[in-house]
Amino acid sequence: MAKHLERERIAAAEESSVEKVTRDGSLVSAIVSRLTSVFDRHAASLVCKLWNESVTWETHSLSVRSRSLLPLLLRRFSHSNFLNFHLCLDQLRDEDLLTAASALPHLHTLIIGHQELPQEELTDEGFSGFVKSYTRLRHVALCCVANLRDSGIRELSRHCRDLTALSLSSCRNLTDDALDALSNCKSLKELTLKGVFQFTPSGLARVGENCRGLVAVGLEFETLDISLALKSLAINCQELETLTLKFSHGDLGELSRCRSLVRLHIEADNSNDADIPITNIAAANRKMKEFSYVNSLAPLGDSAAVTIMHNCPDLERLCFHSGGRSLSVLAQSGIRLKEINVIFGWGIRDVMIHGQGNWDIELEALIRSNQQLEKINLQCALRPSVRTFSGIALCSNLRHLDLSFTGVDSGSLAVIADSATALQHLSLVKCEGVSDMKVLSNFKALEYLNLDQCPFVNDEGLDFLSVGCSKLTDLSLAFTRITDIGLVYLAECGRLRTLKIPYCRGVQGHGLVTIAKCCSWLRYLVISHRFQGSEALAELKKQYCMVRLHVDDLALVPFGFYALDVAAR
């Protein structure tokens, strides 16, 4: 007996840590709960059945890419509380929602629709029946649900009294009555309305009257005048902290009545001078931490930008058109920014031509005085010096960098890569000063990369990229010389989710199919319209990839493109 116990003791001592983890279900569950990345969880699910089950139970978000997979997914993830049809390739039907209603008792978040694929078979009655089953829904986002009507929103507001966030995008049959129905949503804190509806300016103004507890609002309309809506929000929503606007018609003056704004993001498309309204808004909201104003037709003046800096000392994120003087003031202001987005346009070029200032010196000083920056956008900056790029290299916390249309070269990128080891987002659109792609492989943490119109992009470079940037999830290569050979190299990027390659005449299709089969995470592709009806497109859809066909200059050119070149010779 003693010998038997001794053998068991020795065997237990020799058991490896991996074996203990594999055997102990509670320990496995604790480990899995600490995994925040979907890629890490996927890897853990492949260890064994025990780990797979643990990952399943720790997964509460269910994304459906095909309605044919819905019954199987609902059985396995019946504990999910987040249902996402955003990237579903099929037309949803009422019975799909009814099936989900009976299978997901803990659901609190629902997302339906995508701007590239409108949902045209889902009816208003089906949606109404669904929300009656889920009185605990708290977050709802509906995009391009063509048959959704006011009655559906009315049922949502009537039964889901705990609704805190609602996003509606281009649900074209909704009218002002849908906005009136929101008065029942006493808990509503976040509201986003964008795209095409049947709203009127006066109806939109009732949002502030009906939802006085709003904390975050987003409005995006091309033709609708939002002046009355802004006035209503300013007067009635005393807790409003975040306001995001994209519009062509509207008066910002009434927003100066707000006193609670912390984040203000404006993208306008009109010729209205906004300097006075913006400075008044800044004076009334001195605790503002994020401010952006983009209007190519009437940029914010330097004096207004300077006033904002003086009035809002707590600014962390700033986006504006610069004329040079504001950069100098910002560099000397003592404001400690985490993000700066300086938009350079024709105005800067005029200043340079007339010799009225050297903005590159101010830009360098600004970056060097804000080395804690996490995001820098210098898109279209004219000939920033090597000293400016070396200043960027001092920002060790950098996560997002946009140097599109600048003169950055390979040497400067190498210096930045050595310091900004955590950089995740890099945009180099039409950067002709870079000589090759090897330097890009030094950005090991890169997740997003935009190399549109870059002459140095080639198949060999994609081989280096796939090896060095293994965490890449989003890649754009429009107007480049890549071929299917290079795309096959990209198949090594197992985490790739989005790939955009319109205007690439060398891509014939089999490389796309290879990527789709090898990269199980690939969800969204933008390719030339010439692939319409091709075998490659059919195969991509079999792999549950959402494909956007871009009407480019090759849309009417047959696949024997190079044969045409030879014939021309």
Description:
There is one protein chain. The chain has four domains: 1-59, no CATH class; 60-199, Ribonuclease Inhibitor (Leucine-rich repeat, LRR (right-handed beta-alpha superhelix), Alpha-Beta Horseshoe), CATH 3.80.10.10; 217-321; 436-569, Leucine-rich repeat, LRR (right-handed beta-alpha superhelix) (Alpha-Beta Horseshoe). α3 (25-33) packs across α5 (49-58) and α18 runs parallel beside α19 (410-419). It has a 20-stranded parallel β-sheet, with helices on one face. The longest helix has 13 residues, at 2-14. The protein is globular. The chain is built from 24 helices and 20 strands. It starts with a helix and ends with a helix. By secondary structure, the chain is of the alpha/beta class.
What are the key terms here?
569 residues; alpha/beta; Leucine-rich repeat, LRR (right-handed beta-alpha superhelix); 20-stranded parallel beta sheet; 20 strands; 38% helix; disordered C terminus; LRR_dom_sf; F-box/LRR-repeat protein 15-like leucin rich repeat domain-containing protein; Leu-rich_rpt_Cys-con_subtyp; FBXL15_LRR
